[in-house]
Amino acid sequence: MKTLKNILIVAFLLLTSSCKKFLEEKPASFLTPDANLSSAKVARALANGSYQNLSGLLAGQSGSYGGNTWNLMEFMTGKANSDLGQTGYVNFQTLIYSNTSFYFDTWWQQMYLGVGATNLAIQKIPTINAAGLSAADKTNMVAEARTLRALYYFYLVRMYGAVPKVVEPPKDLNLQIPRVAAKQIYDEVIIPDLLEAEKSTLPWSDATGKISMGAVKSLLADVYLTYAGAAINGGTQYYAESAKRSLEVIQNGGYSLFSQYTDMIVPANKNSKEFILQVQYAASIPVTNPLTSLTIPNYSNISKYSDEYGSVWPTDQFIASFPAGDKRAAEKQFFYTSYPGIKDGKIVTFKNHYIYKWFDVNAVTTTAKSDLNYTIYRLADVMLMYAEASNRAEGSPNANAIEYVRQIRARANLAPLGAMSQTDFEHEVWLQRYFELCFENKMWFDMLRTRKVHNDVTGNWDDFVGHKTVFNATFTEKQLLFPLPKQETDVNPKLLPNNPGFQ
Q1: pLDDT of residue 262 exceeding 80
Q2: What are phi and psi of 411, to 5 degrees?
Q3: Do both 173 and 38 map to the same domain?
Q4: φ and ψ at 223, to 5 degrees?
Q5: How many domains does one find in the chain?
Q6: C-beta of residue 396 within 8 angstroms of C-beta of residue 387
Q7: 9 and 115 Cβ atoms separated by less than 8 Å
Q8: Which of 246, 259, 342, 392 would give a disulfide with 239, using CB separation of 3.0 to 4.6 Å?
Q9: Are residues 269 and 197 in the same domain?
Q10: Cα 299–318–322 angle (5° rounding)?
Q11: pTM of the predicted model, to two decimals?
């Protein structure tokens, strides 16, 4: 909780109309909880401040070379490897990580900084009365902040379980706050925030990358699907609530699947078509998407980047688990195995498959500055959420669910499905989520909420507890929650006891 003191200050980001300016604007001053708030620009600045820690989803790890918060959820699946020992990947492959291991502290800090910024926006925006700022404008800005607060807490409860409930800016620096159960965070913060955001008049999509109604409902669909599942066991009725929201996004949001997978790595397509919610990056600002360089093979000399990391790449067993003919496993779709050298143009063949999902060609070959966003929700994800939730809610797959899975498979050059039981259809949906959303930080959370893991060697669906990875490590109940970071429990003993299996 040491880092929670930082939530007293939110960087002031001036409102502009374009996505580029929204990203490029430099802080002009700082806002504190007792600041004089009297303009529409200040209200927009507070709302914009709520977005800052979305970059925490791709935050660098102190003390690591090639370490990034994104790495953690991929290493944990047992389906990822690394070229760099400095990423700490061995600790996660062998499941010997502890409360001092990489990433746990950075995730905690970044998500609570985000919570702090949203708390300030939610408290202060309604009090601002200024020319050009309507009641609807304020309601929508608060809806943005509430959605982001729900998202930050959604990450926290899935990773750590019980966490401190902080829903307003602190009045003093006495920040030794105990944890409350994850279900309480869902019931009192995450779900109420999203239900309030649903009442706003936010547009279904937003080309500048701000929260839209599509983002609100996609997140709520994910929350309800998780809430109904094994981690919370909130009740089977929440599958229907999840399906309701995802269907609204599919039918009303105006989103559509890209025809080609490589359309997703064209910078001009950011915040459009299939993309519902993304972390915003741009080549024109100092902080660009780190995944482009992180996923280039280590010292392969195929790019203009001074550092090529190879931080995360898929295991051979995961690649082999794709069905025969699946386009997603083809060269330069989701993965690649060779590329021309940057100096002589001769083909460099890699020892492994590497991730192509953040391969910005212009950055790799010319600028060394990635112009790609990082996706939190896209239409394919929501279509598969609907298929899973409606199948559970109704006891069998309905026509829409079958059609959405057909579309996902068709883009991958896979044949339509025949008649399937509820269980077989669910397994197919889970498998499509594995393949379609691989290395987008989805798989680990799917494993936790379903308590199932696809065995890439046998093809079976193993129980989570007892699953043996290709690294010969076995998941136990200890893996269901991450440890609370030692630096947090040291300054706030009220967080203890730690999660099972950790000091």
Answers
A1: yes
A2: -65, -25
A3: yes
A4: -60, -50
A5: 2
A6: no
A7: no
A8: 392
A9: no
A10: 120
A11: 0.93
Query: Tell me, what's the pLDDT at 38?
Result: 78
The residue type of 154 is F
The owner of tokens 């496993």 is: 329
Q: Can you spell out the DSSP letters for 277-335? A: EEE---TTSSS--THHHHTSPTT---SS-S------EE-HHHHHTSPTT-GGGSBTTTE
Terminal-residue alpha carbon distance, the chain: 17
Contact 183, 190 (CB under 8 A): no
Tokens of 272: 């459009």
Closest CA to 64 of 75, 77, 53: 75
| Span 384-438, pLDDT tens digits | 999 999 999 999 999 999 999 999 999 999 999 999 999 999 999 999 999 999 9
Is the CA virtual torsion 14, 15, 17, 21 positive or negative? positive
Q: Which residues, including other chains, have CB under 8 Å from residue 134's CB and lie 6 or more apart?
A: none
Give me the count of residues in the chain.
503
Amino acid at 270: K
Give the percent of the chain with pLDDT over 70: 93
Domain holding 302, by residue range, is 264-374
As given in the structure block, the two tokens for residue 71 are 């790495």
DSSP characters over 246-269: HHHHHHHS-----SSGGGGG-GGG
- Look at residue 286 in the predicted model and tell me its pLDDT: 87
CATH number of the domain within which 194 lies: 1.25.40.890
For residue 98, tell me if it sits in a domain: no
Of 197, 286, 37, 153, nearest to 12 by C-alpha is 37
10 Å CB burial of residue 463 (0-12, 13-18, 19+) is exposed
Last residue of one domain, picked from the residues 326, 352, 374: 374
Is the pLDDT at 15 greater than 60? The verdict is no
Considering the domain architecture, whether residues 196 and 268 belong to the same structural domain is answered as: no
